[in-house]
Amino acid sequence: QDEPVPLAFFVHDAEIVASLEKTLAGQSVETEKVLDIIYQPQAVFRVRAVTRCTSSLEGHTEAVISVAFSPTGKYLASGSGDTTVRFWDLSTETPQFTAKGHRHWVLSIAWSPDGKKLASGCKNSQIFLWDPATGNQIGRVLSGHSKWITCLCWEPLHINPECRYLASASKDGSIRIWDTLMGRCDKILTSHTQSVTCVKWGGDGLLYSSSQDRTIKVWRTQDGVLCRTLQGHAHWVNTMALSTDYVLRTGAFEPAEATINPQDVSGSLAELKDKAQQRYDQVRGQEPERLVSGSDDFTLFLWRPAEDKKPLERMTGHQALINQVLFSPDTRLIASASFDKSIKLWDGRTGKYLTSLRGHVSAVYQIAWSADSRLLVSGSSDSTLKVWDAKMKKLAIDLPGHADEVYATDWSPDGQRVASGGKDKCLRM
Amino acid sequence: SIKMHEKRNTKQKNDEKTPKGAVPAYLLDREGQSRAKVLSNMIKQKRKEKAGKWEVPVPKVRAQGETEVLKVIRTGKRKKKAWKRMVTKVCFVGDGFTRKPPKYERFIRPMGLRFKKAHVTHPELKATFCLPILGVKKNPSSPLYTTLGVITKGTVIEVNVSELGLVTQGGKVIWGKYAQVTNNPENDGCINAVLLV
């Protein structure tokens, strides 16, 4: 028998916590009107908050600048300023492989949605592919960009279960789509006039890219043609997030079915593709994907890029530039981390402001949601991480311990661990 | 060999070394943060506290005699009584300071010489901030001046650093730090100090 799905009930956007009477007491409602009570399903599984630092993994000889868990939570990879990418064994929390090959800082890493390949981009504009099971390089070095790589994004699993294509954004203003099987560049998308800060591969055959030239461009991945240009920001667009981000990242892996020992998702390519497609359709629903972009002009914009050139909503309130935005895995909430030491929560569908999470004493660099969308972890330049409860809208747990700024944070998709790396060269779990 | 001789005077592009100071992609096009940060001095601070000794930037100061710091004020009908003293140097009185009844106060601290803020420089990062003073910790000339709150060159004062956003390793926010005065405030009209890290 199915487990009952927990629901949350809302009247006029206010959640009913105690009783309907108490919630209505605070609102002015006419007694003769019909009241709409909206229910929202919550995740069936619950992720417990991380409370303590289980280990401090040393090994990098320079600052750790990017950290990522594989889509099933089985592997952990970290890129650093000492030009290596290190793979860490999660069950023993010790170093597993050191992947050498880059000749400059490893700026961004991205796991393929099936968890079998890791792509890493460096400041010398080279991209390497690594095999997490052996730590060796797969294929050839992908070079072609003229300046450093800012962001990497794989093609979603439900479009191509082989995980063949990879998009890379660079400071030189171009986006390249690479064929990882043949080891060569498939398409080059040029239109941006300044550095491309972020690239996201959507689930509907569209590619989104944001740039320092204040625009976001929407491309068709089939032929590489520019579909739309979204304008509206007044300064650099730093970051973007898609409502279906989390489900595209985890592919065929369902966090509700996670086990204590993370395993690779098994099944033939067709099965994986079906599963990923099902999960994607469930999260997306009937509406097209939504995109939120954060910028140096202290505002965020909510777009429906497949349909409209005009933004749905302009979200203001931050007092310094926004460094990262993320949709929660169930797409109900948007969290934005900013250099004004606060994190703001917004409604995922309308873009309305919900609350501010304050507590950090310095710029908040990166955030990560837990798989059930109830908890949010944030890493900041004041060397602490804080876990926030999204329902209570308060601080749940403080995680001090880093000796210097925390540059990268990630929560594993099976919800068991949080990894963070920073300027003090050590990775904490 | 001859080739090595030729290479001796020309500059070669250094291919091997990767520069220090790795930053993530989102910080690359930005300058460093303008606020000062304490680097990994947490361990050094703990060791210093254990040893109980402080290395100060201004170790030796000229001791200031009483006749220099305190001026005799004559009172009484015939101006014969000479038990009152007025402080001629800059001093700090706390927030809740109220004078003793004027008839009975022995030490007069004029309002014009009372300061609340100091210009504090971080020695390694060379950034200066105007921070409120919390109190006078020690005046090297005399313990009497410490209790009075007299600030002269070499005095160790405590300043409010909550503006800098420093955090200890245990996650607590630091809001007070010691600084040592480096100028003669009565001559300059301002207090310049160096933060003791």
Automatic annotation (TrEMBL), chain A:
Question: Where is the protein localized?
Answer: Nucleus, Nucleolus
Main localization (coarse): nucleus
GO CC, alphabetical: nucleolus
Kindly list the biological process annotations in GO that this record carries: Notch signaling pathway; ribosomal large subunit assembly
Where are the WD-type repeats located?
57-98, 99-140, 142-179, 189-229, 315-356, 357-389, 399-429
Q: Which UniProt keywords apply?
A: Notch signaling pathway, Nucleus, Repeat, WD repeat
Domain (WDR19 first beta-propeller) ranges: 71-226
Family matches, as PROSITE patterns? WD_REPEATS_1 (PS00678), WD_REPEATS_2 (PS50082), WD_REPEATS_REGION (PS50294)
Q: What is this protein called?
A: Notchless protein homolog 1
Q: From which source organism is this entry? A: Ibidorhyncha struthersii
Q: Gene of origin?
A: Nle1
TrEMBL record, chain B:
Gene3D superfamilies given in the database record: 2.40.10.310
Protein's UniProt name:
Ribosome biogenesis protein NSA2 homolog
Q: How does it assemble?
A: Component of the pre-66S ribosomal particle.
Please list the residue ranges that the record marks as compositionally biased, kind Basic and acidic residues.
Answer: 7-19
Q: What is its main location?
A: nucleus
Q: Where in the cell is it found?
A: Nucleus, Nucleolus
Which taxonomic lineage does the organism of this UniProt entry have?
A: Eukaryota, Metazoa, Chordata, Craniata, Vertebrata
Question: Any one Gene Ontology biological process term?
Answer: ribosomal large subunit biogenesis
Indicate whether Glycosyltransferase appears among the record's keywords: no
Q: What does this protein do?
A: Involved in the biogenesis of the 60S ribosomal subunit. May play a part in the quality control of pre-60S particles.
InterPro entries to which the protein is assigned, alphabetical: NSA2_fam, Ribosomal_Se8/biogenesis_NSA2
Give the record's family classification.
Answer: Belongs to the eukaryotic ribosomal protein eS8 family. Ribosome biogenesis protein NSA2 subfamily.
Q: Which organism is it from?
A: Ibidorhyncha struthersii
Q: Per the record, which residues fall in region Disordered? A: 1-27
